[in-house]
Amino acid sequence: MSNTVLLEVKEQIGYITINRPEALNALSSQVLSDLDRVLDEIKGNDDIRVVIVTGSGEKAFVAGADIKEMDKMTPTEAFEYMTYANDVFSKLEQLRQPTIAAVNGYALGGGMELALSTDIRLGHEKTLLGFPEVGLGIIPGFAGTQRMPRLIGTSKAKELIFTARHVKAEEAVALGILNRLVPAENLLEEAENLARSIMKNAPLAVEKAKHVINVGIDLPLQNAIRLETEAESLLFSTEDKVEGMGAFVEKRKAVFKRK
Ligand code: CAA
């Protein structure tokens, strides 16, 4: 079996590693299909509570879609490649588990777009992001033109996409692309600490919060608020809600069961 994407599970954290260091983890069709398979495994694994996505090697998170593969594509093949990548990235975005990108170096083009499909992004001082696509005669094709404006606003997204410039880590934090920076040697550890601080809480509540935010952001406000109210009332039927509020009243630590 191909191993361009690795999945490891430790203490209820699923680690996805894009594993093509010789090509700076560029997203070939094989990588996309391996990522697709790994996401299906995660979807079916109730033991995984939080997912961390990172890249192999010291240099790159992901340096983009595979330019050498795209170089030979016909428009029809490009359509299929982009459509498949978008299906896979949407699967990542819609995972019920919260996802954290540990952006450990270059996150360019498709690499930035992969990071944008996660919930929370941590970087370090050498993390470098950007959309080089217009310099290659194309545009971001894994939903960068859509997710980035929704995250940072149209004007700032247009500047990044039109200039194709590299954005340093501090600026990426100021723009709201990265949540924060941590020392390079602690990146994975900080991602794990963040994962554990999420895992202390009621899993179904965290999953519902993610769903309501993801779906609600594209709805008219009143419909989105209604979605929230319905999700909230459903959570009142869970054992974990009884446990969470009971533990507060009884002044003890809650023990959640994802029930
Ligand atoms: N696709 C295919 N191969 C890539 C790659 C990519 N996106 N990025 C790097 N590589 C390969 C290089 O070709 C090189 O392989 P060889 O040793 O066989 O020549 C290897 O990875 C190491 O890369 P460099 O020697 O270039 O490393 P560097 O440190 O000198 O430069 C870099 C690093 C600035 C990231 C440079 O590799 C680079 O500019 N990469 C391309 C970045 C890019 O343009 N990404 C956007 C792609 S388009 C896209 O993603 C479209 C979309 O949205 C669908």
Automatic annotation (TrEMBL):
This is Enoyl-CoA hydratase/isomerase family protein. Keywords: Isomerase, Lyase. InterPro entries: ClpP/crotonase-like_dom_sf, Enoyl-CoA_hyd/isom_CS, Enoyl-CoA_hydra/iso, Enoyl-CoA_hydra_C. CDD domains: crotonase-like (cd06558). Pfam families: ECH_1. It comes from Streptococcus minor. The keyword Isomerase applies. Belongs to the enoyl-CoA hydratase/isomerase family. The keyword Lyase applies. GO terms for biological process: fatty acid beta-oxidation. GO terms for molecular function: hydro-lyase activity; isomerase activity.
